[in-house]
Amino acid sequence: MRLATLGERWWRRMAIAPGSALPQRRLFLLPTRFGLGWAVLFLLLLLFGINYQNTLAYLLAFWLFGLGVVALLRAWRNLLGVTPTLHLPHEVFAGGEARLGVALAGGRPRTALELHAGGASARINLPEGQGEAILALPAPVRGEQRLPLLRLETRWPLGLVRALAWLESDERLLVYPCPLEEDEAEHRHAGAGLEATDFAGLRRAEPGDSPARLAWKQWSRTGVLAAKAFSLPPRQQLWLDYDACRGDPERRLSLLCARVLAHHRAGDRYGLRLPGVTLPQGEGPHQRRRALEALARFSPAGEREAGR
Amino acid sequence: MTGRVGGEAVLADGRMLSGAMLRQLFLGQCLVLALHLAWMPAWLAGIAALVAGYRYLQLRRRLGRAGVLLRLAGVGVLTGALWLHYGTLGQMESMIGLLVGVYLLKLLETHTRRDGRVVVAIGLVAITVAFLHDQGIPMAAGGLVALAWLVHSLVWLSGGDGRRAWRESAWLLILSAPLMVMLFAVFPRIGPLWNLPQADRASTGLTDEIAPGDIAQLSRSDARAFRARFDGAEPTPAERYWRVYTLSDFDGERWRRTPPERLASTLGRPLGQFVAEGRRSPWLDGEPRFEAELLLEPDSRPWRPSLGAALASDEPLRFLADGTLEGTSPLASRSLLRMSSTGQAPANPDPAGPTWHTLLPAEGNPRTRELAERMWRESGGEPRAFLAAIMARFGGAPFRYTLSPPRLTSADRVDEFLFESQAGYCTYYASAMAVLARSVGLPARVVAGFLGGERHPDGHFTIRDYDAHAWVEVWLDGAWQRIDPTAAIAPERIEEGAQAVDDGREAFLADAPFSPLRMREVGWVNRLRLDWERLEYQWQRGVIGYQREARNALMARVTAGLHALWERLVALAPGRGWLGGLLGLLMAAGIAAGLAALLRLAWRHHREGRNEALRIHRLQDWLARRGLGARPGESPSAHLRRVADEAGDAGPALRECAHHLERLRYAPLGREEHRERTRQLARRVAEVRRRLRRRLRRLPRRQGGGAGAGGVAS
């Protein structure tokens, strides 16, 4: 374990940040098991040539050697200069998977690039010089997390050597709590299906307004085309309160998360009260994101301190 | 082919090999098997078909995988069949069969990428083993095809689709070929490290005993015995007597060779009196008359031919006291041998002594003895006159030379030949002559070897089995003298070779019904044959014969060449020494770097010539370096137009660039027009650079980094 962390530290030091082309100094070449077998095969054929004084066996043995060397260079060249760019997933809930997009631009065609990170892997060809692979990373816990160390490698063309590079991004992956629906539907209410029906006045008509909403009477009277404006009926205004939930902190956050999602769907105005954090009432995608981020970043340890 | 390849090597699950990949592996097996099939039992192809059929059904009908029992049964059947076929498993051939068979059976348990790679690796070993059978041009070409196919399989296994894999395999093979050639030339050649089982070589060539009356086996075959090339003088047709064995032991029916070991033990003398190992013959010295380079065919017996008595060779050999040679081991593959020889029968007395060479069975062939006595008396006890009388006797009727004489069956074969059938070929006459000579106490022996050989236009000789010949050596005046009775009866055999003998033609090449040698009279066939043989000879001599001596000679030449180059460099430089040499090297490096830069430029130019987007992109970069870069989100043509407004006299050219670019990108242009516009664009881009550079030089660089495009224009 300790060795692994040591190794990982070393790899992290060797890693490069995404967004720039892979430089020569950070590409590594390692023989694969088949590559070692290839070396044994070369020696075998060479011995065969020597012992039977067989010229064609010599030739074949040396050709295998040459192929090994050239495969080394070709594998290196297959990876050199690839520019990886990370596309973070829009939202990730704990327990689900983070679909991390890795866009690769190579300039020239590349073949059989492999991406490995945190147990997930993907394989991609870049026949046109660019492409994007999706890595489905598992996201078991809530919170702000470092992206796992990403390994970009290729065994092309002969599978004898592995050219690899390590990528490390500074970007943080924010994992929202896992939404947990409550059993009782007390917080659910008829917010959905509301339509804007209350007449709120006139405004200047714009192209694209529905003919049914145009104020034809006003037009006949004044000659100015206006459209009727309606407003939504007043909706629930509510607070989602950490203290009102039951259970351990993670459960409470999960419940709150589910309710944020539900109220957003319903179009409600809601605010969020967490120990030490208060999010004023609001609505819309912006509010949803702020609420989910607050839930994701919330640390129960801070609550205890705030409570004292 | 391109329609069939393609697709992925593995199925969607990312592990199991696809049907296309399995077919690829199977075809590779077929190619490798084809290299072996001429030497191996044909039922191996049946195994390949059975295995492929099973895999096909398994993929199509969802048959189960081959279980361990089935696989074991396969190996068992293979081993049993090989045992039945060869009678043993320890032989080289059966081991090769085992390897090839296991290679074929491996397809049964080939499921993942790793398995596929293992199959390919075994295939490479199987190709190498095929080179044990033969190393000719067809085998090398077949090996190359199989290697390319296997490399393609490996590339395809690593990813991508089949077509891209072909391109990559071609690159791999081409790029690695120079390395291979260099290693091949430079790698030091050492002898075998340990003994390995050798493939059995049929010994079809010359035998070390002859019996007049048997069928003339060798004239029926067109197999190549060896090839030769001469440095300096070439022998005339009448001088092309290749000595191989001397036969001195006659039992009344057949002449046998007595190897030195047997001679030593029979005569009770040390072996060193009869044979010596080394690079020079201890028995003879003198000026060599012929310097020959022999290309020997593999044979299980260690015989080596020499034109006359052997003097020296470039590798250690066993020099026998009778002037013949033996190798220290049988030849497993074709190899080169350089040797010098006298061109004549040896001048040294045979240590076995004259008595040994006058031995005849106590009885038998009474009429021959009687004839010899009579002729000896008639010639007045003069050996030369006696021999001339025998030759004269053979030269006239009723003796005739034929390749298919009546068989001799009686115990007194020489009598039967001399007085009854009076028809035969070289062996008959040589045997009769030697018996006649021995009957009167003249030491004589029969020599078996080759006479003649086909001279190719490039100067090398091919000696074939049908050139086999026998003649007589008689000890006269303190030296062995070659006497060939065939010269008296069939001089055309000496001058033109065995094919010139008319009598008994049906025996000539009887065992080679499809030999191209039968069509010597058809001009173009003969030319084709000669061309092919020349190519084959050069291949065998230059590539296959590239063993220790050839490698050392080449390395010496290269070293000498480098040294001479170094000397010349040192002489050129003013400092005359290390400094001068270093300067020369630096100069060479500079020239190389300059050439590389030029090539790079040419390559860039070439690419730009085809790609207007690249050209414009480079122009934009160029502009950006001068503070006229594009704004975020600005299209190339908009960028050029905006710069044009501020670029003074470069403006029109910039606008034209933008126009051409748009036309090239979006207008449906014909091929001709496209080319014309690309050319125009190139010209305009050059103009922009020229004018802008001049303009920027005129403007003082007072605008710092912050001042953008506007600054330049103001």
Overview of this protein structure:
- The complex is a heterodimer of chains A (308) and B (714).
- Chain A is α+β, with helices and mostly antiparallel strands and 308 residues long.
- Chain A folds into 2 domains: 1-176, Immunoglobulin-like (Sandwich); 177-183 and 214-308, no CATH class.
- Chain A has helices at residues 2-14, 33-52, 55-79, 216-222, 249-266, 284-297, 300-307; strands at residues 28-31, 83-87, 92-93, 97-105, 110-117, 120-126, 130-138, 143-146, 150-154, 161-167, 172-176, 198-204, 226-231, 237-241, 269-274, 277-282.
- Chain A is elongated.
- Chain A starts with a helix and ends with a helix.
- Residues 185-194 and 303-308 of chain A have low confidence and may be disordered.
- In chain B, helix 4 (92-105) runs antiparallel to helix 5.
- With 714 residues, chain B is an alpha+beta fold.
- In chain B, strands 2, 5, 6, 7, 9, 10, 11, 15 and 16 form a 9-stranded antiparallel sheet that branches.
- At the A-B interface, helix 2 and helix 3 of A face helix 5, helix 6 and helix 7 of B.
